Amino acid sequence: MNGSSSFTHNSAAYDSTVGIQAETVHNSNVYFVHPDASPQEKYAVGVRLLEDGISSRAREMITDAIAHGHDDAEVRFHWALAMLSGRAYHDLNAEEIQRLHHASRLVRTYAEGEWKDALRITFELLAMLSTADGDTGLVLDRLRALSPRQREAILRHLDLVLTGGLKDSLWAENRERAETDRFGNDRVHRIWAYFEPDPIGPRALPPRPSTAAAAQAAFPLRAGLFVIGSALLWITALVADPAEAVIELLVALGAGLAATHFGRRWWYQDRPLDATTEPHIPHMSDPASTGDGFTNRVRHSFDHYFGIRAPHGFAPDEWLRYTVQVRNNLAAEIALLYRESRISVDRVNWLIRHLAEDTRDRHNSGTLFDQRHQSQSPAMAKALSVISLIALGITALNMLGTAASGADASGTLLAVLAAVGVVWSGRAAASSWLEARREEHRLVRETQEYDERLTARQVAYQNWKSFLDTTRPSELEMETWLTCDKMLFIDEALRHYQLTWRDLITHTILMTPARPYKRGRAKGGPWRYSRYSFRLFLVTQDGVREISSEIDFTDGKRGGNEQRSNYRFEALSSVQVTENTHTGYDLELVLTNGPARNIRVKDADAHQLAPDENAQEIAEINLNAAGFIHTFRLLEGIAADGKGWIERNNPHNLPSFHPAD
After folding, report:
1. % of the chain beyond a pLDDT of 70
2. I need a surface site. Which of 72, 122, 171, 611 has the fewest CB within 10 A?
3. How many CB atoms lie within 10 A of CB 304?
4. What does the alpha-carbon distance between residue 229 and residue 221 come to, in Å, rounded to a whole number?
5. Which of the four pLDDT bands, split at 50, 70 and 90, describes residue 160?
6. Residues 621-649: pLDDT tens digits?
7. Mean of the per-residue pLDDT values for the chain?
8. Is residue 50 helix, strand or coil?
9. Buried b (16+ CB within 10 A) or exposed e, 181-201
10. Which pLDDT band holds residue 3 (cuts at 50, 70, 90)?
11. pLDDT (0 to 100) of residue 7
12. How confident is the model at residue 8 (pLDDT cuts 50, 70, 90)?
């Protein structure tokens, strides 16, 4: 299966908006621990959260592990990274700075090893904030001597802490690594699977309940009347002429058995078993089949997949016309099976795709319109059935004549009444018996077809789910690719403005969804989008440089709508945040020399939360992942204090951090 074919693209005309195309929450417990989990288990989850860019929860988990006695150089190293990840030094409050000082005093108590070296260098880099650029050489040499995993973790999580000459010395190799890792692990061919919804399980229409009860209930009475009437007629004939009555009885039994045998085959084949088993097709007047209802979306999905899976020799439009009845029946079945609240058609597309492929394959094998249960009635069965019935009728008339020949007027009347009763009850009993047998036969056949359909769909479901699980990137891969995209975007901005890290006081990048987009997340994790808008703020002594651009995260290509602007510190008059449960978070920037700019930071997601997820916690995770909290504090400080904020928060003017070791 080719997953890329299921990635739908919408476009919007100028000044129009296309919203969310699809969204999914992967039901994974990767970020959850049992309440009775050991400190080691909590620490492991904390490290995973840190690697995946969820630093706020990582701090909580690792701090909890330390509080319960799990503390060594490795644990403290990841704790320090979690404290500093996505934050500048001025974002730390007094208590957090004190905790960092306390942790630095613990370094000497840990056993020697690579993790102690990494922890010591982390605190030494933090101390470099207020150190002249020329004094960083020794620390850089020791940083480069660490293992690649430790070195890259430090550079990534201390991104907003490292500034000036220290970062200039490392930037070239960071950029080179980002260029190498940006499309690593087959990003372009796998990332689509992250935004693919988890498929809903297979279903099939069960067989209709049997309606044979009424026929079975009527059959004993009708058969009893037939037996009584036949016996009365034959006894009357036997009294009149025993020899002829015996011959007529034998002929009647033979003709009756033959008529039953061949008539049953004729009945089944002349009345197809599946004539009434098609699912109900909603009329166009039904609300669900018009507008943007579920049935209407199912029909559009069937049209899409049938069109792209036309057999060889068929143009898509021709194949759609050829299979219109098949598609309508299948669409009605899927709508009936999956029409539930909050079930998106995206979760059923795997089944629609399977049915489109199955229809194509059955056409190629010549069985698309093969009605297995309604082949033409064999002429022989029909002829023998008719002949048997004629023989039975003639024999009954002869038996009536025999009975009448030896009886008086009352006996003749009795024989006639018996014959009429035999004809009526025999026809009624045969009809009830055939109807009951037909229903039994239909139920067996439909049950077999149901089992076959459901089994085939279960196989298709397992194949698709396994393919998704194998293809879908991990949270770490998604975070790595996003980090590389951010780093190269920042590098391009620095080149455009001809700035070095020595020229910057600080910087921040805000990542917001760019419409139209698909979005997905692991349970307990942040939303990740198929399209982003990167907005970078570079703060220098002369003012703020802002550059924004859209990027297609699925292939790493830069889109349009690139904007650049420069403004002095005094030009940023206010920064406001609007939170709405139904729409999301909006950031408003007000400049003194221009209109206010509204930036949608994130869309509402309360309807996507699992029952055991905390809405406030998930909102904080998403805002942290977007870089919103640091960006808001930075812009709010500049708007409030102007250039005074810069003087107070210049790295060289910050209080020195002195590692104890």
Report:
1. 75
2. 611
3. 18
4. 12
5. confident
6. 888 999 998 899 889 888 888 888 877 77
7. 81
8. helix
9. bbeeeebeebbbbbbbbbbbe
10. very low
11. 34
12. very low
Helices 475-497, 39-51: inter-axial angle, 10-degree rounding:
40
Tell me the residue type at 569. Answer: F
Beta-carbon count within 10 A of 25 CB: 20
**Strand 517-522 relative to strand 20-26, pairing:** parallel
Long-range CB contacts for residues 557-564, cutoff 8 Å, separation at least 24:
559/514, 559/531, 561/514, 561/533, 564/496
pLDDT level of residue 400 (50, 70, 90 thresholds): low
Asked if 355 contacts 329 with a C-beta cutoff of 8 angstroms, the reply is no
In the numeric block, which tokens belong to residue 43?
């620490």
Pairing of strands 543-552, 557-558: antiparallel
Q: What is the dihedral of CA 226, 229, 230, 232, to 10 degrees?
A: 160
Q: SS3 letters for 507-573? A: EEEEEEECCCEEEEEECCCCCEECEEEEEEEEEECCEEEEEEEEEECCCCEECCCCEEEEECHHHEE
CA dist., res. 534 & res. 248, Å (int): 98
Q: Which helix (H) or strand (E) holds 214?
A: helix 213-240
Site of tokens 């082949």: 375
| The residue to which tokens 């620390």 are assigned | 139
pLDDT of residue 307: 94
Residue pointed to by tokens 């003709």: 255
Sorting pLDDT into bands at 50, 70 and 90, what band is 652? low
Q: Which of 200-209, 248-257, 531-540 has the lowest mean pLDDT?
A: 248-257
Q: How far apart are CA 507 and CA 88, in angstroms?
A: 9
Query: Tokens for 233?
Result: 């007629």
Higher-pLDDT residue of 456, 15: 456
pLDDT tens-digit profile of 32-75?
888 889 999 999 999 999 999 999 999 999 999 999 999 999 99
How far is the C-alpha of 475 from the C-alpha of 49, rounded, in Å? 9
Say how many CA atoms lie within 13 Å of 324 toward its Cβ: 4
| Residue whose tokens read 């239909």 | 442
Cα 377 → chain centroid: 48
Under the phi-then-psi rule, with left for phi > 0, alpha for psi from -120 to 50, and beta for the rest, what region is 366? left
- Going by C-alpha positions, the residue among 86, 130, 79, 132 that lies closest to residue 103 is 79
Task: Kindly calculate the radius of gyration of the chain based on its CA atoms and give it in whole angstroms.
Answer: 40
Angle at 146 between CA 140 and CA 150, to 5 degrees: 110
Q: Which residues pair with 509 in a beta bridge?
A: 536
Confidence at residue 280, expressed as pLDDT on a 0 to 100 scale: 43
Which two structure tokens, joined as six digits, stand for 46?
């904390």
CA-CA distances (angstroms) from residue 110 to 61, 117, 118, 576? Answer: 21, 10, 12, 46
The string over 262-272, giving b where at least 16 C-beta atoms fall within 10 Å of a residue's C-beta and e elsewhere, is bbbbbbbbeee
Contact residues for 85 (Cβ-Cβ < 8 A; gap 6+): 50, 55, 58, 156, 157, 158
Residue 516, preceding bond cis, omega within 30 degrees? yes
